Amino acid sequence: MKEFSVPDVSATIIPVTPFQQNCTLLWCEKTKKAAVVDPGGDLDRIREAIAQSGVSVEKIILTHGHIDHAGGAAELREDLGVPVEGPHEADRFLLERLAEQGQVYGFPARAVTPDRWLKEGDTVTVGDLTLDVLHCPGHSPGSVVLVSPAQRFALVGDVLFQGSVGRVDLPGGDGKALIASIKDKLLPLGDDIAFICGHGPMSTIGQERQTNPFLQGEGLL
Ligand SMILES: [Zn+2]
Ligand SMILES: [Zn+2]
């Protein structure tokens, strides 16, 4: 598990599922209220991280509908008695298919209907923190990115990675839309924004602007 902290905010990153997806337990230091972002599976490890940090989980947040991010959300919602917020409703078809995807990939997953769909311009709170919602289609049609402008960090799901971008060959994927989401919505957030992504190490918007091979093309910057 990796730790992340900026003033007033801490997070523990818990790799889950055979896809090593970065489930993130994120909390407000002032209130010790927390959100579990993308509980794809391996719920025992997530429960252990919650117990170790001593925080009170008030919601589950989903960045998009893929199994490694959302497969454990229904069960964790039942366990904790908290609502599921996100992703955008365009990923409804993915969330409805999670049980069959679990059979394909060989790990348990259940379909989930969020308590709240998110759209561009919405905000999500965690304790005293406020995260802005950006709808960033491309990797999946309903992918959302959550940004804290005050604390200068973002949760980007599978939209952008250190040195790469989300794959676009899955159902509903769209390469042009993905690059437009990154160019029009993520790069303008500012180079100093640190981000936690769905797989692999953290990075910053500035590092990716300068070095990410997918963002160096003509007409992009
Ligand atoms: Zn994904
Ligand atoms: Zn993923």
Explained architecture:
The structure is a single chain. The protein has 221 residues and is an alpha+beta fold. The chain is built from seven helices and 14 strands. The mean pLDDT is 95. Bound molecules: zinc ion (2 copies).
Describe the structure concisely:
The protein has a single domain, classed as 4-Layer Sandwich (Metallo-beta-lactamase, Chain A).
Key features of this structure:
single chain; 221 residues; alpha+beta; Metallo-beta-lactamase, Chain A; 6-stranded mixed β-sheet; 7 helices; globular; binds zinc ion; Zn-dependent hydrolase, glyoxylase
CATH fold-level label: Metallo-beta-lactamase, Chain A
End-to-end gap: 35 Å
Rg (C-alpha, Å): 16 Å
Category from helices, strands and their pairing:
alpha+beta
Structure ligands: zinc ion
Shape: globular
CATH-wise, what's the superfamily?
Ribonuclease Z/Hydroxyacylglutathione hydrolase-like
Average pLDDT metric = 95
The CATH architecture classification is 4-Layer Sandwich
Strand tally, please?
14
User: How many domains in all?
Assistant: 1
User: What fraction strand?
Assistant: 25-35%
What kind of sheet is the major sheet? 6 strands, mixed
Give the class-level CATH name: Alpha Beta
What is the count of DSSP helices, taking H or I runs of 4+ residues? 7
User: If strands are numbered along the chain, what order do they take across the biggest sheet?
Assistant: 1-2-3-4-5-6
Low-confidence stretches: none
